[in-house]
Design brief:
The protein has 10 helices and 10 strands. The protein is of the alpha+beta class and 385 residues long. It has 2 domains: 119 residues, Phosphorylase Kinase, domain 1 (2-Layer Sandwich); 252 residues, Aminoglycoside phosphotransferase (APH), C-terminal lobe (Aminoglycoside 3'-phosphotransferase, Chain: A, domain 2), CATH 3.90.1200. The strands form 3 sheets. The chain has a 5-stranded antiparallel β-sheet with strand order 1-2-3-5-4, covered by helices on one side. A hairpin with a 2-residue loop joins strand 4 and strand 5. Helix 9 packs antiparallel against helix 10. The longest helix is centred in the last third of the chain and has 34 residues. It is globular. The N and C termini lie far apart (48 Å). The mean pLDDT is 95. Bound molecules: 2-acetamido-2-deoxy-1-O-phosphono-alpha-D-glucopyranose and magnesium ion. The site of magnesium ion (MG) has 5 residues, from loops.
């Protein structure tokens, strides 16, 4: 933990009504965008409480005020819904208010504002970067299905687009093509093979966004970053507790959430794995996640959405490959990279392309299972709409 960051955190804490003395600050390195710290506070009676302090990356999120407005209204809605359902097994993230009753604060670094927010830490919880067993995959699918189900009545137009065109795969591809012309010339010769594979899949990219824009599938309140490590699991009961990382909650398609959930939960290796022989999609984990997701969502989902569920897994995986490759070309401006890995983003893109290839191989099994599973759960999920 570097001293400068620790000093800043001490300064941030002063903006909040948080009791006691900060006795530990630990950086959590799982995110690729924001900087996250877990702090330990001890009050005069020796009581310990943990908090999550996050610095918002304003390169990715240009309007931290709108972002925090989204998160505040989403978390309020989630906790109201959980209360209405008498659900005390699950939780909504809780923002801590500043002494001025705001949900974020900033400090000045020269002329620049650095934005921070604090969440209550969810005690006795754990999360996974990679899943090995079907029970956990089921719970993660259930958590994201439940999240969307709880937000089914949320006034969608009140949400700001925190990152416009976030899951617009054709636009992501067009951006990559443009950046190949303007990017770092010395990196261009290295990406021929990867770009070619991405190019060959071009016809797939518009399937979800076109269906949304043509009104064939509904806009919904979606999470948009349904990585497995964004689900907190109860360390004692192994039940899911809460969905975290609400920065990208925006209007979108449920399909990107489902696809991204499978991409990260059913992958046999993490995104940073460079031994591509280890990278693939585990069909059993895919099935378990799909079961969990549809057990919550089958009554809300439309037939048109179900028809695109399999393809959504391939599209989001290719979208990630496009984004990592694009970031490599422009000189690693967006995703955090390991300073000891000069080709980190290129390697991530290769990893995602290997995963997309395995998904393509398994697509007939994937499609078949989704149909079966939907039939099984249709009309049986917890809430009928
Ligand atoms: C980023 O920082 P993290 O891990 O929550 C990214 C996601 C990507 C993910 C890939 C705002 O999420 O879209 O899927 O990396 N978030 C943003 O690991 O761009
Ligand atoms: Mg995120």
């Amino acid at each position: 933990m570097n001293e400068e960051a620790a000093k800043k955190i001490e300064e941030i804490i002063k903006h909040y009504n948080i009791k006691g003395k900060c006795i530990n600050i630990e950086e959590n390195h799982t995110g690729n965008i924001n900087s996250t710290y877990i702090i330990t506070m001890e009050d005069d009676l020796g009581n310990i409480k943990h908090y999550i302090v996050q610095r918002i990356n304003t390169n990715a999120f240009k309007r931290p005020d709108l972002l925090m407005h989204n998160i505040e209204s989403i978390t309020n809605h989630l906790s109201r819904e959980l209360k209405a359902l008498n659900d005390n097994k699950h939780q909504a993230l809780e923002l801590v208010k500043t002494i001025d009753d705001e949900v974020y604060c900033y400090i000045l670094q020269g002329d620049n504002r650095e934005y921070y927010r604090i969440y209550n830490y969810i005690e006795n919880s754990k999360s996974y970067d990679i899943v090995k067993d079907c029970e956990t995959a089921y719970k993660v699918g259930q958590a994201f299905g439940n999240f969307q189900m709880l937000l089914r009545d949320f006034p969608i137009n009140s949400l700001a687009f925190t990152i416009p065109d976030f899951h617009n795969t054709p636009k992501r591809f067009a951006q990559l093509e443009e950046d190949i012309f303007n990017g770092l010339k010395k990196r261009i010769p290295e990406i021929g093979q990867e770009f070619y594979t991405i190019y060959l899949n071009k016809k797939r990219y518009g399937q979800i966004i076109n269906a949304l824009n043509e009104g064939r599938i509904p806009w919904r309140v979606t999470h948009n970053d349904t990585k497995v490590n964004n689900v907190m699991i109860d360390a004692t009961t192994d039940e899911f507790l809460a969905v975290i990382d609400l920065d990208t909650v925006m209007p979108g398609s449920l399909l990107y959430d489902y696809g991204d959930g499978i991409r990260s939960t059913a992958a046999t290796a993490f995104e940073n794995e460079t031994d591509l022989s280890k990278v693939g999609l585990d069909l059993e984990l895919f099935k378990a996640y799909t079961d969990g997701f549809l057990s919550e969502m089958a009554s809300c989902i439309t037939e048109e959405e179900v028809a695109l569920m399999g393809e959504s897994i391939r599209i989001i995986t290719l979208e990630l490959a496009i984004r990592f490759l694009d970031d490599y070309i422009v000189g690693d401006m967006y995703f955090k990279v390991d300073p000891n890995r000069p080709r980190h983003n290129l390697e991530r893109a290769q990893n995602q392309l290997a995963l997309a290839q395995d998904i393509a191989k398994k697509m007939p099994d994937i499609e078949k299972y989704i149909k079966e599973c939907y039939k099984r759960y249709r009309g049986k999920s917890r809430i009928i709409i």
